[in-house]
Amino acid sequence: MRFYTLASGSTGNCSLIVAGSGTDQVTVCLDCGIAQRTARQFAEAVGLALTSVDAVLLSHRHSDHSANIVPVAARARAPLYASEAALGTNTRTGWAELQRRNVEFRAIADRGSFQIGPLLITPVEVPHDADPTFGFIFEADGQRAAYFTDLGRTEVLQEAGLLDGIETLVLESNHDQQMLSRGPYPMALKERVGGNLGHLSNDQTSEFLAAAAPHGLKTLVLAHLSLKNNTPQLALAAAAQGLQQRGLSAVELVVAPARGPLRSAPQCK
Ligand SMILES: [Zn+2]
Ligand SMILES: [Zn+2]
To answer: Which of 35, 51, 181, 201 has most Cβ atoms within 10 angstroms of its Cβ?
Structure first.
């Protein structure tokens, strides 16, 4: 299984997950909040074709994740897996647009695992201010990977067994608390981002890692970093400290670029 982030953060999110091999190989597009053409170019840069993905998966309705989800599914003639509530009446992602573009819809729900070829996907509902918002566990080829961004708290990740055996973890490390509180955002937005239904701070991510990072973890990808209220150096330092406290100093630690793929995508081996 290979996990590629193509864009990450409030300016747009898009990832590709590749599982299986030969005629069994499948590629899934997780979220597309960047322009379709840009996503296609980023996919090509890692040798993948956005136009032939086997399924499209939506975490939640916020436009940095959903903006171009329907065009991507339509172009690839792939089914769209999302919650019914995420679609609604929005002109770009609503039911009418799905029908107009002939996109097949498949509803997802908390812990309702489903299979796409050799890839088993389990949506896990997380606390965020778009109801519902899902993170995901991906399992294939005897490997497990997980993707959790856009969540205000980490308790759900500490549920017994949830992250057991995870080798690749894509985890939000959105903001530095001091930069957020001193930064340019209006007070209401500061409260939203830092609140229980907002985004994980570097400290929250670090505390989670120190308490509950899975012991078999090989690669940690820090994701959804704020461009205004964080720096890769601060996020990396906080996460490294958390991993060290957990005795996981050997874990490969990288930041998902806001735009463009990670040069070497984590491979579960
Ligand atoms: Zn987001
Ligand atoms: Zn969001």
So the answer is: 201
| Per-residue pLDDT tens over the stretch 102-151 | 999 999 999 999 999 999 999 999 999 999 999 999 999 999 999 999 99
Q: Does the pLDDT of residue 88 top 90, yes or no?
A: no
Q: What is the 3-state secondary structure (H, E, C) of the chain?
A: CEEEEEECCCCCCEEEEEECCHHHCEEEEEEECCCHHHHHHHHHHCCCCHHHCCEEECCCCCHHHHCCHHHHHHHHCCCEEECHHHHCCCCCCCHHHHHHCCCCEEECCCCCCEEECCEEEEEEEECCCCCCEEEEEEEECCEEEEEECCCCCCHHHHCCCCCCCEEEEEEECCECHHHHHHCCCCHHHHHHHHCCCCCCEHHHHHHHHHHHCCCCCCEEEEECCCCCCCCHHHHHHHHHHHHHHCCCCCCEEEECCCECCCCCCCECC
Question: pLDDT tens across 193-208, in order?
Answer: 999 999 999 999 999 9
Ligand 1 centre from 257 Cα, in Å?
A: 14
Cα(150) to centroid(ligand 2), Å = 5
Question: What tens digit of pLDDT does each residue of 204-263 get?
Answer: 999 999 999 999 999 999 999 999 999 999 999 999 999 999 999 999 999 999 999 986
The pLDDT value given to residue 269: 46
Domain annotation for the chain: domains and CATH numbers: 2-255 (3.60.15.10)
Q: How far apart are CA 235 and CA 171, in angstroms?
A: 11
